[in-house]
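Board notes, transcribed. Complex of a protein with NAP.
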Amino acid sequence: MSYDRVCLIGLGLIAGSIALAAKRRGLAGTIVGTARTAETRATALRIGLVDEVFDTPAEAVAGADLVILCVPVGAMGVVAAEIGPHLAPGAVVSDVGSVKQAVIDAVAPHLPDHTVFIPAHPLAGTEHSGPEAGFATLFENRFCLLTPQGASAAETDRYRAFWEGMGALVEEMDAEHHDRVLAVTSHIPHLIAYTMVGVADDLRRVTNSEVIKYSAAGFRDFTRIAASDPTMWRDVFLHNEDATLEILGRFTEELFTLQRAIRKGDGKALFDHFTRTRAIRRGILDAGQDTDAPDFGRARKAE
Ligand code: NAP
């Protein structure tokens, strides 16, 4: 058993999945938690995510040897200030925020010296939220990136084992680097999906629902991504401003290049660009990072 008493602050998709996975794999003795609303706390208890719920984060963390903050990025600092004085000596404090440097800056000042801070980000999720959205296999074969803050190798290894126990592939990364990588692989793609679905919705008013009626896989994928939680994504952009603005600038330049190629009828430029991006897709499949893809099995066999 990895930890005796695990406390989850926030009881939504990610916390719910941690609770179910940790229970199934025997990684926690007791799992307790808290959420902002009484409704979420009651649901989490009713569906058996946690053994006990508390009304406040301060009460919830008492006696826990692992505390994981599973609230939106913008709420991490407030929660940390609330729990700081109530954390048990030696407790490991972690989070699952999609941005790392801003969370570290907001949380670390509130943690007493007798605790250990190991921020984390599981690269796994869905467009659903809330306690009933969680499922035990969410982290299987997905990366979980750790950005330890002065934790010893033994403490980090113990926490690594917790995530590996839930099926994750764990790697360590510098927080600033994490934020740049995720801006490219997750944050800007979400912004593009939000933009495209907005554009299509404007058109829908003109074309009387044709956009939905004839939506092929590409656009349907966009609508799924653009259905992601607005609070979570607002906080991601507000707290990863530098990296997302930088990548957005590069993206806009590329878009203008393609726009010019279309206008000039430059088929070679378009063909070369699409050929390059096709090779990137192949690389993702070969790395086993799209288990939902129809050709995932083929890629695995090729390993
Ligand atoms: P979620 O399903 O919406 O759950 C969020 C939880 O946080 C809820 O229990 C909510 O309580 C609580 N909460 C919301 N605002 C709060 C506040 N101001 N103060 C205290 N508690 C608050 O969200 P999630 O998808 O699990 O995301 C949680 C964290 O995981 C975020 O930091 C996100 O960046 C990160 N993450 C998400 C994904 C993903 O794909 N969803 C993937 C990786 C990491 P109530 O229900 O009572 O309002």
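Confidence is low (pLDDT under 50) at residues 294-303. DSSP finds 13 helices and nine strands in the chain.
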